[in-house]
Amino acid sequence: MVTNCTPNPVISRLEEQREAQVEFVDNLLSHVEDDGGRDLVDAEQGNLVAARERIAAIDAQLKPLREFETLRASADTATTRAVGGGARVTERAAPSAEDGPVYDSPGALLLDRVRSFGAPKIGIARDPAAAERLTRAVAKMTTAETPGILPTPIVGPVINIIDARRPLITSLGVRPLGNIPGKTFSRPIVTQHTKVGVQTAEKTELASQALKVESLEFPKATYGGVVNVSRQDIDWTDPGAWNILTTDLADQYGLATEAATATAFATGITQSVTVATNDLAGWATALYSAAAKAYAGGQRMPDTIWCSVDMWAIMGAVCDTARLMLPPRADGNGGTQDITSFSGDVFNAPRIVAPLLPEKTVIVGSKSLYEYYEVQLGLIQAIEPSILGVEVAYGGYAASGFLEPKGFCKIAPAVVPPVETQKAGK
């Protein structure tokens, strides 16, 4: 008997499932950390509990299987018998007819080879039967003949190509909305200030102007998604459909709120400047001009630059072409362009790359002049016992708006003339 070195397929499958659960947890925690180190929402906590329970169940199945394999390895040795002189040989099963011809000795094999060609000079005639024995084809069996027993393994976690981070919302800061009642709420804002001036003469009237305080309205919006899933889909799938479903709902909520905020933020800014030339001098002039306009409109020094991905590429190419090392911040972080990361500073201001901003968008301003409020309801589920189903939803409320839209300024990219015009020198 020959030792069986083939891995146990059940153990291999369970170990792959366990590894997939561990990788799922690692990806979930990495996602949370990339999203600004926030707390876990209810759906994510539920996913962690489900993954932990699945790992424990897999370990319980693996323990007796591994113990059995250990016992098998200790007993699975070749059966041998003694022959003369103390030598031992391994017993083998008798060859079957389908294994082809069996020769008792090398000499018998050589004799059949001679007979297959014939040797008249030594009196050996050609024997077609010998030629047939040497050339007889053995039937081949490939995977084409056994499709019914070929497994289709699922390897690794589910591939989910999505970037659910919210760089724009994270940069603006999330204010709590949970304790604010009503469909809308308002923020008081001074629209007319008092006046102070030089007294023209003794006992003359001082400058006077009433203080006006009006309100900015913040309407609430509801975001959410729902899926009705069968109990069988939850219990029978591997990797588990439940973990994948709830994570994807949370990711889609993040994308929806980021996209809505990016659109409102970009379209609400009306003032802009244009980059005259697509080089360092042109961009430096435009950035400082935009900063001056933003300060004049909002009375706050700009502290952030937001840009879309295409403008990140243009700004980075300009800097790298000139081999520029931008000045680092006071804390020693940032200060460089990097093709492997969206992070970095431009003229000592943090640059936030928000992929869901409209194309050709660069905004300079103070993040304190735009407010974002939110409460995430998280995962909501309802059992449907009559059909063995579960309806699961994920949602939340959000509201956002400008305190002063003139505290921001857009930068329009330089208009590059057509190639024909450049060649003509026009």
TrEMBL record:
It comes from the Bacteria. Residues 81-101 are annotated as: Disordered. It is found in: Virion. Its main location: virion. Pfam families: Phage_capsid_4. This is HK97 family phage major capsid protein.
